[in-house]
């Protein structure tokens, strides 16, 4: 069972998500929190597999809570849910350590699948959000020198895999694209994370954007 903590300041949203996810045979909602501060405490107490995190909340917002949760436990997995489809929130959430980002208008099936993907250690970005995020990063100008230097540590194939990760492809999709075994892709991803000193696929995606390895047409 995937144990989930739901964090949102609106009771109807929490109850709705709880009902939707509770109906799934492989997902269990273990708790709820009304703001970021309570979320940090609940995560420490309940140790959920995935935290569904709203962004705009009183006391402590979702970005600050995500940052604290990930700082306390590097293996924590936070799936950010918001009605605000804005690039600044996507970027800030990913930099804070979130493992995924979904809009609240996602269907029950998309929500449940998002929880499963994040619980499995893969990054989750809504395709439409990913395209805009790539576009925004492309406007930032020259990448930071340290980022460029670190790209040089990767092999040509590892760089290719990193670009596909940043585009939101799963290991299976990358394997199909490159015509290799999925286990080979997993090995490449693991080596990329070690070489770049990153904790997960989401950080790898952010790194690729910052290094300008991904462009709107790429």
Automatic annotation (TrEMBL):
Residues where 4-aspartylphosphate is found: 54
Sequence ranges assigned to domain Response regulatory in this UniProt record: 3-119
Pfam family of the protein (one): Response_reg
PROSITE patterns noted in UniProt: HTH_LUXR_1, HTH_LUXR_2, RESPONSE_REGULATORY
Keyword list, A-Z: DNA-binding, Phosphoprotein, Transcription, Transcription regulation
Keyword Transcription part of the UniProt annotation: yes
Sections of the chain in a coiled coil: none
Residue ranges annotated for the HTH luxR-type domain, each copy included: 147-212
SMART domains, sorted: HTH_LUXR, REC
UniProt name for this protein: Transcriptional regulatory protein LiaR
Organism this protein belongs to: Streptomyces rimosus subsp. rimosus
Gene it is expressed from: liaR9
């Amino acid at each position: 069972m995937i144990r989930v903590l739901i964090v949102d300041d609106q009771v109807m949203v929490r109850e709705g998500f709880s009902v939707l996810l509770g109906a799934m045979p492989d997902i269990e909602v273990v708790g709820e929190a009304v703001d970021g501060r309570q979320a940090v405490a609940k995560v420490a107490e309940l140790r959920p597999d995935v935290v569904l995190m709203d962004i705009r909340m009183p006391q402590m917002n979702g970005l600050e809570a995500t940052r604290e949760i990930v700082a306390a436990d590097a293996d924590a997995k936070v799936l950010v849910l918001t009605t605000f489809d804005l690039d600044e929130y996507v970027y800030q959430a990913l930099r804070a350590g979130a493992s995924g980002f979904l809009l609240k208008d996602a269907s029950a099936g998309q929500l449940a699948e998002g929880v499963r993907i994040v619980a499995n250690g893969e990054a989750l970005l809504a395709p439409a959000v990913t395209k805009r995020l790539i576009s925004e990063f492309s406007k930032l100008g020259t990448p930071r020198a340290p980022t460029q230097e670190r790209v040089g540590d990767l092999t040509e194939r590892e760089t290719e895999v990193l670009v596909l990760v940043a585009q939101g492809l799963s290991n299976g999709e990358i394997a199909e694209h490159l015509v290799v075994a999925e286990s080979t892709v997993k090995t490449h991803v693991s080596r990329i994370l070690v070489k770049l000193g990153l904790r997960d696929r989401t950080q790898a995606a952010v790194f690729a954007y910052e290094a300008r390895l991904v462009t709107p047409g790429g």
